[in-house]
């Protein structure tokens, strides 16, 4: 897919652009480049996980009045975390670094080998 280092880094950064959606698309398209596949898999795992956690928090705690406020607060904090992870991940991928987040990075690395 990507022919030179700059294109390769750009594709790896784009895998984080729309979270797990672009991660899945790039995983389906890119078959050879382990660097790109690593970042696409890490994006899918991290943002898919954060998305699932956010939905679970809303479903479990959102219906109870007092816990609903705590669920909202947890959702806001999760969103802030997601934005930080998103920005750092895109920058590191574009710089050509194989930056691994705890747990998700190890899992992604095992999946693309």
Description of the structure:
It is a single chain. This protein has 113 residues and is an all-alpha fold. The chain contains five helices and no strands. It has helices at residues 5-14, 20-29, 34-61, 65-94, 104-112. The longest helix is centred in the C-terminal third of the chain and has 30 residues, at 65-94. The protein is elongated. The protein starts with a helix and ends with a helix.
Mean pLDDT across the residues is 90
Shape: elongated
Radius of gyration: 16 Å
How many structural domains does the protein architecture include? 1
Helix amount, in percent? over 70%
Major sheet characteristics: none
How many H/I helices?
A: 5
Output the helix-strand order: HHHHH
Unreliable segments (pLDDT under 50, ≥5 consecutive)?
none
Q: What portion of residues belong to β-strands?
A: under 5%
Give the strand tally: 0
Could you say which structural class the secondary elements and strand pairing correspond to? mainly alpha
């Amino acid at each position: 897919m990507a022919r030179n280092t700059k294109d390769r880094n750009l594709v790896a950064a784009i895998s984080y652009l729309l979270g797990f959606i672009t991660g899945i698309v790039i995983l389906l398209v890119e078959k050879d480049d382990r660097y790109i596949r690593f970042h696409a898999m890490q994006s899918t795992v991290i943002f898919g996980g954060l998305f699932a956690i956010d939905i679970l928090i809303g479903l479990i705690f959102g219906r109870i009045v007092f816990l609903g406020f705590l669920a909202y607060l947890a959702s806001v904090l999760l969103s802030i975390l997601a934005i930080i992870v998103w920005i750092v991940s895109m920058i590191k991928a574009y710089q050509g670094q194989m930056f691994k987040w705890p747990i998700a990075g190890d899992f992604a690395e095992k999946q693309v080998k």
